[in-house]
Write a structure and sequence with these properties.
The chain has about 250 residues and is an alpha/beta fold. It has helices at about 15-30, 50-60, 85-95, 115-130, 145-160, 185-195, 210-225, 230-240, and strands spanning about 40-45, 70-75, 100-105, 135-140, 165-170, 175-180. Strands 3-2-1-4-6-5 form a 6-stranded mixed beta sheet, sandwiched between helices.
């Protein structure tokens, strides 16, 4: 039986056009891609966010931007943050898009699984794999709602007003992180995934389901019952007034 491979590509639905427009705006506003950009690696977990990023970046190659090469880096393992999607499925998508698929393996075990440790290992694996193919620009699928959650977590934990930055030079590692989905809401990504047939993919991490980030999302939803525009306003405030300490070594 042939494996169904969902591919999102132009001509877009109305939502697809809107998301590409938001992606282009973020790239322009924060100089995420320039004429010198030859290669971009995508951290591909297999969830709706990273797959949406893959499809959208692939679609705008050579259309107002350089015809850069794309690489998809997937970190698997017994326990690893992300969708828990089989490599065969992701390989098939990348093959259809003519994107090189690179696999790395996490060492995380259930008895020691913890978000901070897992995140650091995953990033190091992704950074090293990207540099091996000469891609020093690495795109992550963090969206507007991720940034708002990060803003509140930093405020509550460290008294810092700091959201996700759209572009972060990681000088210690010799790479730059970009977040092209920074203007796009999670609900729009869910609908986009639904329209193109990959909405069934959700995070399988046993720790992530009870994380502080999940609790923060619950608080945001409660706040929105009283202040409907709170999420959008927090996202804007994070970009306008948030600390940029992360880009200064």
């Amino acid at each position: 039986m042939d494996l169904f491979v969902p591919i999102a590509k132009p001509p877009w639905t109305a939502l697809g056009k809107e998301l590409e427009s938001c992606l282009r705006k973020a790239i322009f506003d924060f100089s995420l891609i320039d004429k010198e950009t030859k290669k971009i690696a995508i951290a591909l977990s297999g969830g709706k966010d990273s797959l949406s990023l893959l499809f959208l970046l692939h679609a705008l190659r050579g259309r107002g931007f350089p015809l850069f090469d794309l690489f998809a880096i997937h970190v698997g393992g017994e326990f690893s943050c992300g969708a828990g999607i089989g490599e065969k499925f992701l390989k098939s998508i990348c093959k259809e898009l003519n994107v090189e698929f690179i696999e790395r393996e996490s060492t995380q075990k259930r008895e020691t699984l913890e978000c901070y440790r897992c995140s650091r290992e995953r990033r190091k694996l992704i950074f090293d794999a990207a540099k091996e193919v000469g891609a020093t620009t690495i795109a992550f699928g963090h969206h507007r709602d991720d940034s708002v959650q990060t803003l509140l977590l930093n405020l509550f934990h460290k008294a810092e007003f700091a959201a996700n930055l759209p572009k972060v030079p990681m000088r210690e590692y010799g790479v730059t992180i970009i977040r092209p989905l920074i203007y796009i809401s999670e609900n729009d990504l869910k609908e986009f995934a639904k329209q193109y047939g990959f909405t069934r993919i959700t995070c399988q991490c046993p720790v992530g389901q009870n994380s502080k980030r999940k609790i923060t999302e619950g608080l945001l939803k409660e706040i929105e019952t009283h202040f409907p525009h709170a999420r959008g306003n927090l996202a804007k405030a994070g970009l306008l007034y948030g600390s940029e300490k992360a880009i200064h070594p």
